[in-house]
Design brief:
mainly alpha, 71% helix, elongated, 214 residues, 9 helices
């Protein structure tokens, strides 16, 4: 029983954090950020095209980022170092998405199992499920606010240990997604994640508690 509770406490928050992080790979989110950063003033004409191609690649609409033959194609906007990095990014996103899907299936399945076996234990599980995420948000959020550059470097060191993620400051990818973009995005993800944990706690207290203690 204890093992089931631990797995639920890990898989549900993991799914949610990856779900919100996936906002970074949606066209609406990038289009919403258009013009909100100083670096965007240098890519006015190429912004929409670049977003379409890059997001299309990350979401499997395009097989690669090499579209030769037209001066407007993406390989004229992205240098080869940027393209290589995007290949690594897609691999990481694919792995995280599959992991999140697996966590969703496992978390929901075990929650239903525990609901049938012992509703009180399921209630306790979701009552304290916020503890781990709260520590995570406090640590990561504090890291971002205190020294975002160090946090950004550490993040890339974990997910891209092979290197290749340091790009020229004047590259299209850096101008499209500047440091400020990642800082704001990181804060948004943590806020949404925290709100989702709070919602789970409220729903647990309002509905599951009623069916468990009554």
């Amino acid at each position: 029983m204890k093992a089931i509770k631990i797995v639920i406490s890990i898989t549900v928050p993991f799914f949610l954090i990856i779900l919100f992080a996936s906002l970074l790979t949606t066209k609406p989110y990038l289009m919403f950020s258009k013009g909100k950063y100083q670096s965007h003033t240098h890519i006015v004409e190429e912004h929409d095209y670049g977003v379409e191609r890059i997001i299309g690649y990350l979401n499997y609409r395009y097989d690669n980022l090499y579209f030769k033959g037209d001066p407007n194609d993406i390989d004229y906007l992205l240098d080869y170092e940027s393209i290589d990095h995007m290949v690594d990014v897609k691999d990481v996103y694919t792995y995280l998405r599959l992991s999140a899907l697996g966590c969703l299936i496992v978390g929901v399945s075990l929650s239903l199992l525990l609901y049938k076996k012992d509703r009180k234990e399921l209630y306790k599980t979701f009552k304290f499920i916020y503890v781990g995420p709260a520590l995570f948000v406090s640590f990561v959020g504090g890291y971002i606010l205190i020294d975002f550059t160090a946090a950004f470097t550490a993040f890339h060191g974990i997910f891209f240990p092979q290197g290749g993620w340091t790009l020229d400051y004047d590259s299209f990818l850096i101008r499209l997604l500047p440091t400020a973009f990642w800082m704001v995005s990181g804060i948004i993800i943590l806020v949404l994640f925290s709100l989702s944990m709070g919602l789970i706690y409220i729903l647990n207290e309002k509905f599951l508690k009623k069916h468990t203690l009554n």
